[in-house]
Fold each of these.
Amino acid sequence: MASAQSAYLEITLRIDAQDRAAAASVYTKYKQPFLSTITGANSKQLLVREDKVLWHTRVSSSRSRWQQVRKPISGLGVGPKAWALVNYPGALHSLPDQWRVWLTRNHLPPEGAWWLRKRVEDRVPIHLRTKVIDARVSGGQVALQLSDTLGTGNRELKVDHVISGSGYDIDLQRLPFLDQKLRNEVRCFMGSPSLDASFGSSVPELYFVGPSSAKSFGPLFRFVVGADYAARTVSARLASQLSAPAPSKASIAA
């Protein structure tokens, strides 16, 4: 998203327990008027490569028993596929790499949250089928060279701030906090580390979790909801190693 000028204000209050009910009523009373009148940036523009913006749909809180069975709700969304990924988080690790990568790339594509839709549509100019082909500093601003994906021509857009929401392509070789020699020792698949069932890499005692583990474990680990399984699995591995008896001199010599 590109904006002309932006400001952000955060107020943190410490409220005693006996005053929290009164504070909550003030918050409820003034929240919406504030959000409705604050101008924020002078102007905002949303650049989208696709020909439309995808939005999540809000799930009704009152659903029939059949709807609940047919489309169960989980931390990853609605439907049996999302439910299975959350409840069997390690299952995809045993699939062939190509199948797992296909599912990771195609399940839950980029979509906007349902509660953001009314804050964007008819309020923020949206430029569809647009991609950024170049960016440079010009007179204290950012000059973006934009191209229409239909090939109708290029144009320039000057803004004060640019927020990139295009996602990330995991590439281990682009992690500068890891020594180059160490990066070269990690066995990878399509730029991501190839991990065992405990998130361990080919380098002993080196683990990867989060998005960098998605190509080994599936789309669940692109999201926060996958952190619980990852943390428990890595912790269990580390705990088992700490509790294992030290090898004897004879076994070391062998």
Amino acid sequence: MARTLHCPRDGAEAYLHRQRGRFGKFSIDVCPECAGVWFDRGQITKVSGDKELERLIVLYAAGSSGLSCPVCGNELARRPLLQMVLEVCPECHGVWADGGDLEYAVKAMQGEPFANALPPTQARDIAFMTFRSPIMSEAVRSTRPGAPRERRP
């Protein structure tokens, strides 16, 4: 029997979107109300093709987000990244991304000012674009504690 997942942000019942990508089959849960996306453990790796990207997102999450994991009920931890914050479950290693944050990240990666609207896009498509981006990969690697920082002149 399939699980029912509820959005940690607004409690709406998420729908499961199954996708066959170039890195294999995967599924993500999408909130129909806020367009947030839940990635189960291993799903970011399947979307991005980069296991290290997912590991660094999970490893360096800290501090309370005030949200509960929709899978196991534990408190989610915050993982600031670019101009957004991902929420990560320290227990089951799932990752929540708010719909607005994903849209902002995609626009930033495309070099568009946030005020310019993209054509209407499904939350799942935004999630795929975000985690496949080399900019996202670079941002995750450079924002971990102890990562080399650029010196200011």
Amino acid sequence: MNHSEQLDKIAPALVELQSDAHNVAATAKNDFIGSKYTPLPELLNYLKPLLHKHRLAIVQLPAGTGRVGLETVVLHESGQWISAELSLDFEKEKGKSLAQVAGSYISYLRRYALGAVVGIATDPDLDGNAPVEHKSTDGLDAKVKEIRAHAAWLYKHQIIDERVGKEVMQRATAAGSVDELEAIAAELKSMEGSEGW
């Protein structure tokens, strides 16, 4: 994190902003991994009046070299500021140009950075690709998460298509035993080819 030399004006403004803010409903659904999130336009519509009330503004600019990155700067009317940068590696995704992939990543980073600045959640805490709900017991949770993450990786690397990925994730979520999950994991492993997960 970087910041202006003085923080005596921006710090209290951020404290007040965070006391006024609350989590925003996750109204959109990512069909591939079954999670919900707050769309960026809804988040911005919620935050802009709060930011204005506390004499703050947020500027978000693409950043990074060889990675998709975002710098988020919080400005106070006094001229004080704080900023942070976040970047992710990215690769081509099936059916999308690199520009579309980068745009998706930037929107994702913008949502998470905005939520972090304001101290709110913009989606349920699902630990990456964890299922929204499933019937498995606590002992099976880690294996279900692993299978869902593996299927997402295979999809991202264009080894399986969305239909197969969803089917695998649904089967993992519905599995009732370690044996069933091990069979699904072995099936995914066999699809990897030479790339390796």
